[in-house]
Fold this protein.
Amino acid sequence: MSPRLRRGERPFPPDEDLPEPARPAGLLLDARLHLLDRQVVDVDEVPTAIVDDLELTESRDEPRTLLVSALLSGPVLGTRILGGRPPSSRLHRVRWSHVAAVGTVVRLGVHGDQLDVLWVERWLRDRVIGRIPGGRHDPE
Amino acid sequence: MKRILGVALGVLTAIGGFVDIGDLVTNAVVGARFGMSLAWVVVVGVVGICLFAQMSGRVAAVSGRATFEVIRERLGPRAGGANLVASFLVTMLTLTAEVGGIALALQLVSSVEPRLWVPVAAFAVWLVLWRVKFSILENVAGLLGLALVVFAVALFQLGPDWGELVDQALRPRVQAGEAVPTYWYYAVALFGAAMTPYEVFFFSSGAREEKWTVQDLSQSRANVLVGFPLGGLLSLAIAACAAVVFLPRQIDVTALSQITLPVALAGGKIALAVVILGIVAATFGAALETALSTGYTLAQFLGWSWGKFRRPAQAARFHTTMIVALVVGMLVLLTGVDPVKVTEYSVVFSAIALPLTYLPILVVANDREYMGAHVNGRATNALGLVYLVVILAASLAAIPLMLMTGAGA
């Protein structure tokens, strides 16, 4: 058990030499804080998905680092809650190269319509909601 | 001039929209059993919903994020998911109660078995959700709900002993023959009826539907701070009517027809017609709001496109959720459960689920990343903390009280 500190005293020597954190050129993002569980909107500001998880891949060239290659959404939420890992073929990805900006929401530079993650939305639109009379009109 | 009209409209719809089946039933039941001795709970509840609605409206207007987007972002998938399940189930329960309320009110007009009205009511609710613009559905239901003012008129016509009513309200005591835990059980129920979680989902998502910005904040504050207290007065009038007519005769309120009885006694057929119109409007409006809230919560948690401002085909999963919620509510009612009983449970479970939505909103309303200069002031935070304690106490006490009293029997 560590000895109790008196008020005003620091838990480390004040002249300790600490390593400088690397300062990458560009925006510094915390994956948990700025990416996970954020809303994703497409180029027309239409909500598309939530960043349920991230796919990381190792870079090919030296030095080897982990890169975010895709935002994941959909059934992967289940494994996020319960643990485990779905097979790679089951993942619904939004490629990281489609991300245009990261703020309080993650903005994509593409139309959501082409994306895999929206297949349920498309299916329900084409098979159910779009077929009910009035489903494709503006409300009055 | 347009601005004044806008404020007036907002205030009127807030009054009419404040009362739903939960307020109707709980206030009448409480009035019949405890007189006005629980009036203080309505006051506590109204101040609470003003605070809560005002905060969530401000978060939505300033940050552009509705309640459940914020909850997901702040609590993550696990705690947020548990929160979603609880909030969604309570909202479903409330939706079921509201649709049942429409059916009961239509039964009063037609003498047709309410179970036959349930599918009609559910279909009508869906049709409005499908085709009618957000601003129209909100305003029309709110304005027609104002017909419930007839409860206040009836109270004057009944010519009650005002001194006695005020005395009951100002010096609350448990009526002879009632147990103390029962008193507190109904206190929790009344609190849950005034501060229902769906009101907050609806209010914050409605702010996004109507594209509120910082400029609209003062108007929304006026709507809430004037409209809700006046709506609270309506609740008190309902309780007082029951206290005048039923309490001396020791009659318990167990049906919607009894709730309208004091009005019929005081004002005859015309008053009865007006009150039934008011009840249909209030429950119909609340059914729309709860149905929308089921869609809002799920869509916001899972990041779907949502909103009445889009065509149904552009928010397919959102509309599918609402259809499924209405069908499930309808099936539950078709089993023959008593909608009044469903209502009584829904308000208590509302009180239980309340901290889950209240706390994240309180936290985010203080977060400068979202709110910039519009974070809570000191007075709001002080009141917010007091209410956090009140809401937690009500939530924790609800289940023990329910077991002890056999749900208020």
Notes: Chain B is about 80% helix and 0% strand.
